[in-house]
């Protein structure tokens, strides 16, 4: 009997997806999907772009036109007016194209949309243009077939994310750097899945005025960064600066001009006790905040082991935990002047078990762990939960494990 049950379970596991393939697989899975009988051919979709449409709404409508051309091989029909179009939409609120600091999970309505497709027309009701854009991405995923045979099933979709912030961090500090066009292709791909944050991890890869010898001709100009930010915004993706304002600065500190700002010889951490270190950081912070409009800024602060080792082995006068907190407080106070919300890694909790109690108010802890190991993750997660802090979670190597809800 047990063997029979095992065979039955095996059959169920491998046959249910086959039956389910009759309907498109949507990712992230919407909050509610109700299929009806019938289909809408792409050839029946007509679009009108109102003369007074904002740039973000016009972008979403042009995205739909591009999708229709790509899948059917024919340009979308242009209706004489919005009332005459078979693609109908209502956007309730202006602005709010990008995620803000005050959004919560779940419950944020900014990206909410309702999509209704019949055999005659498409109707979308969205809170903001972000919801309209995401409804268009859902339509993209629902298209079956190509050419004249391409169609969309009749369906009603109601959707809003369980996670208000859905980001990907890209490393622009190690190895060969992708071109600007390659970065934009990444953003295009991530936009398909309704990603709304793109973390630009940088050590010294962005041009900073007044620092010509740092990463000489081996990074991105400020104009290139501006073009990436604008490209992301069109796709409702906030390009968030991910900086290193304490450790991971070997590329700066190996430069003879700045070597004396390090806490150890040939190291990668600044020495906050040296006035020149914070003079440099004030300059950097001003330039980065002028460059990135995002309300968030990740300041790093991970793996500052050198200061800990020097304090333990060489200089007992150094209180490495207090130095870490002092430096984070300084950085946060500077960034507050520019209206930024600070994010920082929590891995130093390994060395300073009570650090979460002392974290400057308003700093958002960011938890990370390379391994999909619940025990390891909880070692960082539990201190944050104990202090009832809002936090972000970053999975190393895309290994989300069992800890997160569906988006």
TrEMBL record:
Keywords assigned by UniProt, alphabetized: Glycosidase, Hydrolase
A single GO molecular function term of this UniProt record: beta-N-acetylhexosaminidase activity
Coiled-coil features, chain-numbered ranges: none
Enzyme Commission number, as recorded: 3.2.1.52
Domain annotation Glycoside hydrolase family 20 catalytic: ranges: 164-371
Keyword Hydrolase assigned: yes
Domain Beta-hexosaminidase bacterial type N-terminal per the UniProt entry, residue ranges: 24-160
Pfam families, sorted: Glyco_hydro_20, Glyco_hydro_20b
Catalytic activity of the protein: Hydrolysis of terminal non-reducing N-acetyl-D-hexosamine residues in N-acetyl-beta-D-hexosaminides
Active-site residue list: 303
Magnesium found in the keyword field: no
One example of a Gene Ontology biological process annotation: carbohydrate metabolic process
Name the UniProt record assigns to this protein: beta-N-acetylhexosaminidase
The organism of origin for this protein: Dyadobacter pollutisoli
Taxonomy of the source species: Bacteria, Pseudomonadati, Bacteroidota, Cytophagia, Cytophagales
